Amino acid sequence: MKAMLWTVAAAAALGAAAAASAQTMSDLLADGNTPGNVLVHGMGYADQSYSPLSQINTGNVRHLVPVWTQSLGDDMGEEAMPVLYDGVLYVTTHNATVAIDALSGKQLWKNTLQFASDVPRVVCCGEVNRGVAIYDGMVYRGTLDAQLQALDAKTGKQLWETKLADYKQGYSVTGAPLVAHGVLITGMSGAEYGTRGFLKGLDPKTGKVLWTRYTTAAPGEPGGDTWTGDTYLKGGGSTWVTGSYDPKLDLVYWGTGNAGPWNPTVRKGNNLYTASVLAIRPETGKIVWYYQFTPNDMFDYDGVNELVQADLKVDGKMHKVIMQANRNGFLYVIDRTDGKLLAAHKFVPKVTWASGIDLKTGRPIETDVMADARAGKKVEVWPGALGAKNWPPMSFDPGTGLVYANVINAGMPYQVQKPDYKPEQFYLGIDFTGFTYPKGPRGYLEAIDPVDGKVQWKVPRDIPSYSGVLTTGGGLVFSGTMTGEFQALDARSGKLLWSYRTGSASMSQPITWTHDGKQYVTALSGIGGVYPLFSGDDRLANVPAGGAVWTFAVQR
């Protein structure tokens, strides 16, 4: 058990900013229509990362300036999406939760975690955290040592903490939790360490675990016959990116990660429910339907990326859909009522493992690269394990009908070898030697039609961006770069309209909000995470570390 440190600012300052009443399910349901608050990850249950706010627009964004910045006192990657309630921003770092006055930038309280010294050894891809959930006067976050914590939103004092798994076995929690139908739902990280993935639903008031949904099927369960022997016990299927929720259908959509080990020859079969989307009942964790993106996943393609909801016309008929830009290189459109695949299109320049997705069967049309890799031959596969799009959320703009995503243009050499399970070490079963890059850009910011798959415009990035994307009713696309620029582009053309250099890499999910009729944009900066760790990109050597929160507004 770790020790907790929490500090509170002067009572007068705290009382003015934290007089908030408890948040209810009605508040969460109305999140997209309450521009003064941002309560749900993805700026609403649909996870569109879109705001209809238009005061800041293509005509005046050039006048955008910082109104305050606040240090987070952290040198790890800052990947969190801020949550805003009643004038208070709640932000996480890898080891702290911070409450900040949204208008002044003044820190109101900070709760700091003290981890055991061996925790970083079993965290795969950077010591990070991607944000909180807020509900009923409490702020919830996961921890790197696989616990879920509830804090008092007014004071930062810990109210309860629940151990979800043993971090020494490779489990951690880096994604933001989600409150749906009054249940607090969390995923986990750790598929690279021979773990068994899960989702858990907890009582938000007490932290009691209400249900556990494993993402690798056991013998005797539906899907259990897709695993060899007891390989499901170390089969991966982590759930480290936050899901979305359709309250009318009462379904939570959550992506699952890669199968483990990466060598597929020891776990022959589809390996359900890895590299999939699960539609579950939030009260029970029961699977209503599933769709598997990459059966027998061998390249760490995952299926964890955000599941964005919209109503789209496909083949002349309106559908309630979820969309995912998968790490495997295909953008999927799925009917969210029943899991039927409606469209799937390649969205990056080079995909070599599959020539397409069969809409009748829903399965990938594999190329010879797959057969050669399973046979033990050394191959080069695109995308590589970084994925065609990693965790940073894409955005859907209902006005343009386009999705906007930061994508990656990289492959990797791949050859299977005998897997050797050892606690606290990667359990991969391949000769992992790094990545293969093109001569040109390693990434793009793309605007994509999700139905026909056409890329409407793209902005090249010499170094791929690991920033989330925010679109607005002002016709803007906000996103950041690894070299520190936070930018606004024209949503219809991709033209760069504004750029501001922050003190470090811009890697978080931006939000926008209003107070007294004035629109603001908030984002974090701070380099870290998977790309700096594993890319070998020495161009990042001069990007300084150091986390901070930035808030911008138009000043004329």
Descriptive account of the structure:
The chain has 556 residues and is mainly β. The chain has a domain at 1-30 and 80-228: Lipocalin (Beta Barrel). The strands form 10 sheets. A 5-stranded antiparallel β-sheet has the order 1-7-6-5-4. The chain starts with a strand and ends with a strand. The model is unreliable at 1-20 (pLDDT under 50).
Offer a few descriptive terms.
single chain, 556 residues, mainly beta, Lipocalin, five-stranded mixed β-sheet, 4 helices
The low-pLDDT segments are 1-20
Assigned CATH class of the domain at 1-30 and 80-228: Mainly Beta
**Most strands sheet:** 5 strands, antiparallel
| Ends apart, CA distance between termini | 51 Å
Percent of residues in β-strands: 35-45%
Give the fraction of residues assigned to helices. Answer: under 10%
